[in-house]
Amino acid sequence: MLKNVLIANRGEIACRIIRSLKKLGIGATAVYHFADRGAPHVALADRAIELEAEVPTAAYLDVAQLLAAAQRAGADAIHPGYGFLAENAGFAAAVEEAGLVFIGPQPEVIRLMGDKIISREYAVKHGVPVAPSCRQDGSIEEFVAGASRIGFPLLIKAAAGGGGKGMSIVREAGELAARAMTASSEALRYFADGRVYAERYIERPRHIEVQVFGDGHGKVLHLFERECSVQRRFQKIIEESPAPNLPASLRDRICAAAVKLAAAAKYRNAGTVEFILAPDGEFYFLEMNTRLQVEHPVTECVTGLDLVELQLRLAAGEPLALTQQDITQRGHAFECRLCAEQPEHDFRPATGVVQRLREPAGDGVRFDGGLREGLPVTAAFDSMLAKLITHGADRTQSAARMRDALAALVLLGVDHNGDYLSRIFAHPAFLAGDLHTGFVVEHAATLAPAALAANERATVLLAALFATDEFRQLVDDCPDPHASIGHWRN
């Protein structure tokens, strides 16, 4: 087993990895920028090493500093978490060249699957269905001509992209050239790679993904599927497993396609194969994420497996001891991404300082966060603050637990989407499992908050204040103003 792992990340995912390391008795080394010096992941780790950079994000992207920190700490492995350098083939190669273990897939597989165009061609080669598409190889005029032959609507995507960047829906030929140029410019800005491609846009699709694990020699297992259709700006906010209203035969076909693709690549460690599911039941390969997913807790809940522990054991050279028959789904799980944003203003990112935090708890409730009171929330990093996960015997019970957990959450000092998520979990279409990637847009009017009059808002705020234990204690401890007057009264 590994002895000391450096986590090349921060926040919630760093805390999550540290928990599994401690459970296995493995040393945990954190890294941090000065702006994160008081963050929980720094306090949780056995050792923390500061990274220097003028801009906070630059610190976590500095390969040389990360490798130097690992050597200084005596680490024998690096876990990249997700985001930052997690899907950077150059970083994975540099880790291995430094004599360290990279807790993830092989660099060449990251490179293969990280390029959306090449990975699609690889999927086609191995019999995994892909939506009709056209890539930009020459001039913009040639690209427009080729894309037009596919038919509209089209979805333009960045070849090296992710997170909804460099994506655009095109419904008419007249807007194709301008949208393609805009997408290419955005892709170049975010990913230093301006290549784009167009694929047929499926109306009202579902986003279904499959968690896989491989041993690097061709043995690959799936840990079933996750439904990720509730999104805003092509970014997920709610995930669940199992996917609702998904026939068992279709589930089997999707999972088999994911295993087939990963096995062909001799995939190692954790990965996720993502698909678009059309209303007619046809599904198409979307991409493969060569890392641990944000939404991995829902899979942990329904399978009873610790996915980070599995990653660590595989990275240490242990065989993939499980068989497919060993892995079963039990109950139903949801995950909500709590983000610092203002849903009523088109999900505009928010900043602030965490003034009050009360994490929900109870049967089937899990809170994965990296927050503490007094922690500043800035625009330097992704807006996700924490993840709220619930597990129940079935979808109805799990949804009810999520509603209760969201109602119990206290997070003051920064605007967040907690109330918005509560409205989704009370929405009839969501409860019926009528999901697609346009859910948020389609139901925008009914998901909007009800307007509060000024006096109602004041009443709600006062009620929230009186509900806190600290405030009631202050009231109880306040001396009676008449006690010092004596017996005289006017």
Plain-language structure description:
The structure is a single chain. With 490 residues, this protein is of the alpha+beta class. It folds into three domains: 4-103, Rossmann fold (3-Layer(aba) Sandwich), CATH 3.40.50.20; 132-200, 2-Layer Sandwich (Dna Ligase, domain 1), CATH 3.30.1490.20; 210-446, ATP-grasp fold, B domain (D-amino Acid Aminotransferase, Chain A, domain 1, 2-Layer Sandwich), CATH 3.30.470. Helices cover 36% and strands 24% of the residues. It is built from 19 helices and 23 strands. The strands form six sheets. An eight-stranded antiparallel sheet has the order 14-13-10-11-12-15-22-20, sandwiched between helices. Strands 3-2-1-4-5 form a five-stranded parallel sheet. A hairpin with a 5-residue loop joins strand 16 (341-342) and strand 17. The longest helix has 17 residues, at 248-264. It is globular. It starts with a strand and ends in a 13-residue tail after the last helix. The mean pLDDT is 92.
Characteristics of this structure?
single chain, 490 residues, alpha+beta, Rossmann fold, Dna Ligase, domain 1, D-amino Acid Aminotransferase, Chain A, domain 1, 3 domains, 5-stranded parallel β-sheet
Concise overview:
The chain has 490 residues and is an alpha+beta fold.
Strand coverage percent: 15-25%
Summing up helix and strand content along with how strands pair, one would put the structural category as: alpha+beta
Q: What is the radius of gyration computed over CA atoms, rounded to a whole number of angstroms?
A: 24 Å
Q: Considering DSSP H and I runs of 4 or more, what fraction of the residues is helical?
A: 25-40%
Average the pLDDT over all residues and give the rounded result: 92
CATH class of the largest domain: Alpha Beta
Shape: globular
Number of separate helices: 19
Number of strands: 23
Second CATH tier, the architecture of the largest domain: 2-Layer Sandwich
pLDDT < 50 stretches: none
Main β-sheet, in a few words? 8 strands, antiparallel
Read across the widest sheet, the strand sequence of neighbours is 14-13-10-11-12-15-22-20
Determine the CATH topology of the largest domain: D-amino Acid Aminotransferase, Chain A, domain 1
CATH homology group of the largest domain: ATP-grasp fold, B domain
In whole angstroms, the N-to-C terminal distance is: 79 Å
